[in-house]
Amino acid sequence: MPSRLRPQIEGWLLLLPAAVLLALFTHYPTVATAIDSLFSTPRGARGAVYVGLDNYAEMAGDPVFWQALGNNLVFALGTVPAAIALALLMALLVDRKLAGRDFVRLAYFTPTVLPMIAVANIWLFFYTPGYGLVDQLLHLLGAPSHNWLGSRGTVLPCLMVMTVWKEAGFFMIFYLAALQQIPPSLGEAAALEGASRWTIFRRVTFPLLMPTTLFVLVNALINSFRLVDQIIVMTEGGPDNASMLLLYYVFEVGFKYWDTAYAAALTVLLLALLAALALTQFLYFDRRVHYR
Question: I need a surface site. Which of 31, 86, 119, 246 has the fewest CB within 10 A?
């Protein structure tokens, strides 16, 4: 073997196990799902039949799909900025010298390591009408009991609060790591010039955190569209589809109604939407992040 080719071959061989796993469990299912979306759902002895874009045409006239899409957009707008802002605030707090800093970091990160099913059951108790934690606190203030997860006006905000609580600690870790990479001399130099703490954060710290913010933003947006565990445990999409999100609708169509072809079409649309959003973020924010 020529010596100049040996490093390249060794590199590809090292990548081969990960490439095989990625192809088997990511690329192949994606292609198979896209193909299945062009066929009808097999029913008993009747096999799948090629129907072209009929499943996508059905989606265009499906009111539940449009409601789930609208709910998901509202959910993303409500959770992504809040989770990022809270994560950055927590990172700034625990990056400073304070008593019990390690304990505070652990407390902030604890919700992240809890299983989602456990978190959903905990918050299900919080929102229980009459004797849940939220109603007990409101009772002390003289407010009446409320069915938080059974009301169209409050069910989605309740899920947003729980999601922000669950994800903010995870995003905090990335911000904390980024803050520790910023040289203290930059802030000290700005302070010597008379800059306030807010000016130092706005003009020095936050611009240097933009690569981390872009990474967190993409992950938070993807997470907001792949929410399903909490919905299954807490609301099952109700009441009256007020908490129906896209991934739960895919789950319901595929495993409750056994319309696998339509579920495949919904999945393809969801993947295309997430890819478009991620690509747009990278293309739009790339110059702003890296100052080009």
Answer: 31
What does the alpha-carbon distance between residue 149 and residue 146 come to, in Å, rounded to a whole number? 9
- Structural domain contains residue 37: no
Structure tokens at 130: 């009459």
| Sign of the C-alpha dihedral computed for residues 17, 21, 23 and 28 taken in this order | positive
Cβ-contact 229, 116 below 8 angstroms: yes
CATH of residue 239's domain is 1.10.3720.10
Model confidence at 4: pLDDT above 80: no
Tens-digit pLDDT profile for residues 155-208: 999 999 999 999 999 999 999 999 988 888 888 888 888 888 888 888 888 888
* Cut 0.90: pTM above it: no
CA 178 to chain centre: 20
For residues 199 and 28, give the distance between their C-alpha atoms in angstroms, rounded to a whole number: 50
User: Whose CA is closest to 83, among 58, 111, 105?
Assistant: 111
Which residue's structure tokens are 């981390």? Answer: 212
214 lies in some domain: yes
User: In this structure, is residue 246 part of a structural domain?
Assistant: yes
Contact 246/266 with Cβ under 8 angstroms? yes
**Residue 198 lies in domain:** 63-290
**Which residue has tokens 């796993």?**
21
